[in-house]
Amino acid sequence: MNFKTFGLVVVLGVLCFAVYVSLNHNxxxxxxxxxxxxxxxxxxxxxxxxxxxxxxxxxxxxxxxNAGGQAPPFGSEEHTDPMPPGAGLPGTGPLGGYPGEYGxxxxxxxxxxPGTGPLxxxxxxxxxxxxxxxxxAGGSASQFDIDMANxxxxxxxxxxxxxxxxxxxLSAWFDHPSLSPQQSQMLVDFLDFAAxxxxxxxxxxxxxxxxxxxxxxxxxxxxxxxxxxxxxAKINGISDPRNLPVGRELKVVRGPFRAEISLSKLxxxxxxxxxxxxxxxxxxxxxxxxxxxxxxxxxxKIKQPQYYGLDGVTVKASDPSxxxxxxxxxxxxxxxxxxxxxxANVGRTTRRGWICLDNRDVDDLYDILSVSSVVIVQH
Length: 379
Fold this sequence. Notes:
By secondary structure, the chain is of the alpha+beta class. Helix content is about 25%, strand content about 15%. The chain has a domain at about 260-379: L,D-transpeptidase catalytic domain-like, CATH 2.40.440.
């Protein structure tokens, strides 16, 4: 079964079930656990991680908080470029040695200020957009049912052509307070699946692919799209960002990405430009100090950070017990997002550090957020 057929079956199954559940729920369903979850059980939604390989099993729809699949890995779909990844690329060294890496402790950024990109958040929808960003604000559960039915109709007409616009439309409903648990579960199952295809696969779903021009390198191309070059390298399977074959088409995504952190849910959610939902990460919290709610911007990004505790304890970057792990995304003064020396710290509050992710997750996040990306922290 090819991708289009499989994807259509999966997505239509999700949407049909969501509409069925939504249209048949009564006033009491807001307190009813999702199907397959006993009364009184923890119905917290599972965290879907961009880049983690997993299938999206059709039979899992409505099977409780762990139903659905996680976003496919970077580069999970077959390339259709005239030059496959690696063709004609002489270098195979690690990307970390490329000049222009965002590890500048001074916080200098090669990217333009936020809001100057071609499709920066808040820029508004084009006249051809069938689903303007933010239209779900103030919506009701019945309006969600209508939007899901409209999405089902569009996807049944042409899944691949309409997947991106459907992702954008339904992204506005993420974490909406009017949705029932069943509606929320069906929504995130679809969003995680669609974001894995639209954002992280090498297939170009939004706008045209970018054709490499003479003299260009990946950092220049990434700067034009307000994203780190490492993200484009992962999506396109590029091993040497300094030597790009002229004429090759690249999958590009537009940024800057923003992050929304829920301290109560211990969850970080990503959104691309114009509000495209782009996946979730589980987080843990350190006990160094209270993290104030509010709007932050990424100030700097450092690999191999050294830890300076507020109690005077210092841990070198090379020390396995460094509570920051191998990545630091600075937000304000000492507050930042980082890795961890113990994966068990994710999902709980620990003594040291601030906002921690699993080391593989923070490696992905480091390559997604730009210096000057907005980070919203809320309870």
